[in-house]
Write a structure and sequence with these properties.
alpha+beta
């Protein structure tokens, strides 16, 4: 590195301080959810911001230390040399080239240059996983997000040795079975998908292992929709969002009759007034479930279709 890196001790102290602040804020959010109240949007945003700061601070620390130890750094398949680091970005130079780029710290992959570096990294991930058990006691969501990230990094380090090496590491270090390891990784992916899509319905996200396990049974592209429908179903029934409820919603979606578009070559007849009345009744009975412009749009579509039909017959 050409620019002086962060002081390791100061960085670690800052991370510990921010993690304590995050734990205090997250506890308030969890207490509100458990009490059936909507958490403050500002408080939820502060938790996300704090979590984001910690993640990038760790990334910066790891990248700087890796650069100083001559580890191999990769960005989009190209080997790079780190020139300097900022809060969320780094200035890098492509190896054997004069090209200099500004990239996100999240894009930089660290490949240990020796087995000792790999062992040090695995020991660090192990320590973080052990610490998470105490730090996030009783808060499965936060624990799964933290541990899932550590497991992914450990798996990438051991990938050259095969998948069995990673599973053996989990078994020897934590006593975790193969199904449990994949369950944690799946939960972390589910939570990451919901956060990436900025999805936080009424300040709610999955809070336990069973909820995440059911959500993980669908494709990642369907996770947010399944969670949304589960939240709405729970609200309608006045009950908690349990794994069994998510399962019911998922199975009902699988049993639903798929939508079939109208064939433009066929003349369809239907009760226009009756159809519009049923839509209006739905709006009157459940105003919070319908958008006000739906009826107007439907009227415009049907009126234009009636005019076209009249012209065709004239």
């Amino acid at each position: 590195m050409k620019k002086k890196p962060m002081h390791v001790g100061q960085a670690e102290a800052w991370i510990q301080q921010e993690e304590a602040r995050l734990a205090a804020k997250q506890q308030k959010v969890d207490e509100a959810i458990q009490a059936g109240r909507k958490p403050s949007e500002q408080l939820v945003a502060e938790c996300d911001e704090c979590r984001d700061k910690i993640r990038f601070k760790r990334m910066r620390l790891d990248v700087e230390q890796a650069s100083l130890s001559n580890a191999t750094l990769i960005v989009r398949g190209q080997r790079v040399e780190v020139i300097s680091c900022a809060k969320k970005t780094a200035k890098v130079q492509i190896a054997e080239s004069d090209t200099i780029k500004q990239v996100s710290l999240a894009e930089i992959q660290i490949w240990p240059s020796s087995q000792r570096n790999a062992d040090d990294a695995l020991n660090r991930h192990e320590a973080n996983i052990v610490a998470a058990k105490v730090q996030y006691a009783g808060a499965y969501r936060s624990w799964a997000e933290s541990v899932g990230a550590e497991l992914r990094e450990a798996k990438s380090i051991l990938q050259d040795s095969g998948n069995d090496a990673f599973l053996s590491w989990c078994k020897n270090r934590f006593g975790w079975s193969k199904p449990y390891v994949y369950c944690v990784l799946a939960a972390a992916r589910v939570l990451a998908v919901l956060r990436q899509q900025n999805y936080d319905l009424y300040g709610r996200l999955p809070e336990n292992e069973s909820q995440c396990r059911e959500l993980a049974r669908v494709d990642e592209s369907q996770v947010a929709e399944l969670w949304c429908r589960s939240c709405e179903t729970a609200d309608d029934r006045g009950c908690q969002i349990t794994a069994n409820l998510i399962k019911q919603v998922r199975e009902s979606a699988n049993d639903a009759v798929p939508f079939e578009p109208l064939d433009p070559g066929i003349d369809y007849e239907f009760d226009r007034e009756g159809f519009l009345q049923s839509v209006q009744d739905g709006i009157d009975q459940c105003p919070d479930k319908f958008l006000p412009h739906v009826l107007s749009d439907l009227r415009s579509i049907l009126v234009s279709r009636r005019i076209k039909s009249a012209r065709d017959t004239s």
